[in-house]
Amino acid sequence: MERTRKRPEFRKGRPTLTREAIGRAVLELGDAELTMRALAAHLGVTPRALYKYVADRDDAVRLAADQLQSQWLLPELDPARWRDSLRELCLGLLGLYRRHPAALRLAETAALDVHDNTRRSNEAMLAFFAALGLPPRDAHRAWRQTIAVVAGHSEIERWRARASAHREMPEEEGTFDDVVEMLAAWISTLAATST
């Protein structure tokens, strides 16, 4: 990926266009309306100006993914109190998905590079699950399942919010704590049965 020189975010009191600003704008705009024309309008520039910084929509999505991955910091993970650590981890992920609800669908639309921060987080998570007694294959499985459970809960929250705006919704069954507790029970069973 070709890197452009870092430009000042403001010039003469007005925001300038940067690759970082484009990534943030993609996260703000989301996937439903993400066209290069809509992105340019959101940023207050012409599509031609936008193409000076990004090659195409996929390049803009990669910038958004980079922004997202750089924002997420893994909490301190303590295998001795692993359920608390898992809960903190899940709450952090949920908070990230709540701040950037389109992030999951945007990530599906382009081949994404993995940010150094994400690599470090993945390695720390695999080490955390290994410390619980999971072999590498099951540690990977537990980490993928953790992401899937939190992402799924985030999607359900968004669906409920949209649905409740159109009609009265029944009382929500279960809470995020219940979801995390079920995930912890699965991980505990996986660790107990791993060979």
| Strand segment count | 2
Summarize the main sheet: 2 strands, antiparallel
Instruction: Output the strand order for the largest sheet.
Output: 1-2
Principal-axes geometry comes out as globular
Order of helices and strands: EEHHHHHHHHH
Plain-language structure description:
- The protein is mainly α and 195 residues long.
- The protein is 65% helix and 2% strand.
- The chain is built from 9 helices and 2 strands.
- It has helices at 19-29, 36-43, 47-50, 57-71, 82-99, 103-108, 116-131, 136-166, 176-193; strands at 10-11, 14-15.
- Strands 1-2 form a two-stranded antiparallel ribbon.
- β1 (10-11) and β2 (14-15) form a beta hairpin.
- α5 (82-99) crosses α8.
- The N and C termini lie far apart (42 Å).
